[in-house]
Amino acid sequence: MAVTACRHFSGYKPCAKNATCDDLCSAQSVPTAYLLIIHLGAIGAVVRATSLLSAIKRKYPQSHLTWITDAPSHQLLLNHPLVDRVLTTGKEDLLSLSALEFDVAFVVDKSLKAGGVLRQTQVKQVFGFKVDPRGGAILPATPAATELWSLGLDNSRKFFLNQKAETQLMTEALELGPFERDEYNLPLTLSEKVESEKRRQTWIGSGSLLIGVNTGCSSTIPYKKLSISYHRELIQEIKRRWNVNVILLGGHEDSDRNLKIGEGLPVHQSETKSGLRDGLVSVAACDIVVTGDSLGMHMAISQKKHVVAWFGPTCAQEIDLYDRGEKIVTKASCAPCWKRLCHQNTMCYDQVSLVELIAAIKRGFDLCQQMSLSKQPSLEICY
Predict the structure, then answer these.
(1) CATH homologous superfamily for the domain 33-173
(2) Is the CATH code 3.40.50.2000 the one for domain 190-371?
């Protein structure tokens, strides 16, 4: 008789794990808890939230996990070994969500939309954040989320007093046990690893290392990227100092800008219009990634790259580089501010020290050489 409670059983087609569904199947896995993550936010924040997966599996080791997010973030989570089902906030997926029930929901976003998604299903217990159904105010779902919630209400605390990384704040807010500084969890597939190594060999040429320069950021806070002229100056200084090759990284919105940055310079252009997973493959090919506080930075952290990250309008202390890199903070006296619009005569990205950036890259270069980080990566199967 079919084991309908198995996580691999769908009820509408043969199981891919075994032709016969019964108690003798070696792939049988019956969940002890059904969990839901609601994280709709910025794509980089979704990448960062993969650090929660290890803590979730420690607390709920046999759980079945559904993650709902906005498109296109779902592309990064598809086929993840720790995520059983990925849904978006599209109409059809919300209909699917309404057919399900969960033991626990982790609501990461402080938003009315996330609260609305939560109401599309039935959940016994909620951690993180909830919405007052009368006035629409965002509230902590349990007292444990009060610290993270209150940081959003007090700029002084958020900008200057708080010293916890967002990964720690989330883990504590969701009551996932003692914080163990879990890494981001976003592995490449075997085919992606092969492709990443192929790109690396093409781009590195006779250079000793491959340095990725992530040039863009989302339009939400456009000041998290350096100017075209500053990027060109940075690349020229890198090429003047070291026998390395440089690859320009970015998304579809950065395509024309990257061409302007690289015009006349000895750099490679990565593909920017082939989707998020393809961008992750390009990031994984690099030894060092120089970036603003953006999706590219989070991708580089997820692939355990040496990261040199600069910060202007956002809070450097909220980011954990896991001892693989350095943070360069703008000299602007008004930073951080998290403003989406700015009318300063001199922008914060113009006050990021080139000397400090180059010095940090040099230290990363030396470390990569010492640790042989440029050797061929293992092609071990992740999925």
Answers:
(1) Glycogen Phosphorylase B; (3.40.50.2000)
(2) yes
Question: What is the pLDDT, as a whole number, of residue 383?
Answer: 29
**Maximum mean pLDDT: which of 21-25, 141-145, 371-375:** 141-145
What distances in angstroms separate CA 69 from CA 25, 94, 191, one per listed residue?
33, 11, 25
Sheet (strand 288-292) strand order = 268-269, 245-249, 210-214, 288-292, 306-311, 325-329
pTM of the entire structure? 0.94
Answer whether residue 381 shows pLDDT above 70. Answer: no
Residue 225: beta bridge partners? none
What residue segments make up the domains of the chain, in order of their start? 33-173, 190-371
- Work out the end-to-end distance of the chain between its first and last CA atoms, rounded to an integer number of angstroms: 28
Are the beta carbons of 286 and 210 closer than 8 angstroms? yes
User: What is the distance between the alpha carbons of residues 27 and 86, in angstroms, rounded to a whole number?
Assistant: 21
| Assigned token pair, 138 | 């965002």
Residue 176 DSSP class: -
Q: Do domains 33-173 and 190-371 have the same CATH topology?
A: yes
CA distance 355 to 159: 25
Inter-residue long-range contacts of 227-233, CB under 8 Å, 24+ positions, other chains counted: 227/349, 227/350, 228/257, 228/260, 228/261, 230/349, 230/350, 230/352, 230/354, 231/261, 232/261, 232/265, 233/354
CA 68/CA 79 separation, integer angstroms: 14
Give just the sign of the alpha carbon dihedral 186, 47, 73, 210: negative
Q: How many residues does the chain have?
A: 383
Q: Does the N-terminal peptide bond of residue 133 adopt cis geometry, omega within 30 degrees of 0?
A: no
The arithmetic mean of pLDDT across residues 276-289, rounded, is 97
**Can you list the positions of beta strands (E) in 45-119?**
63-69, 85-88, 101-107
Rounded Cα distance between 381 and 203, Å, is 24
Assess contact for 186 and 305: CB atoms under 8 A: no
Among 236, 242, 245, 249, residue whose Cα is nearest residue 204: 245
Classify strands 85-88 and 101-107 as parallel, antiparallel or unpaired: unpaired
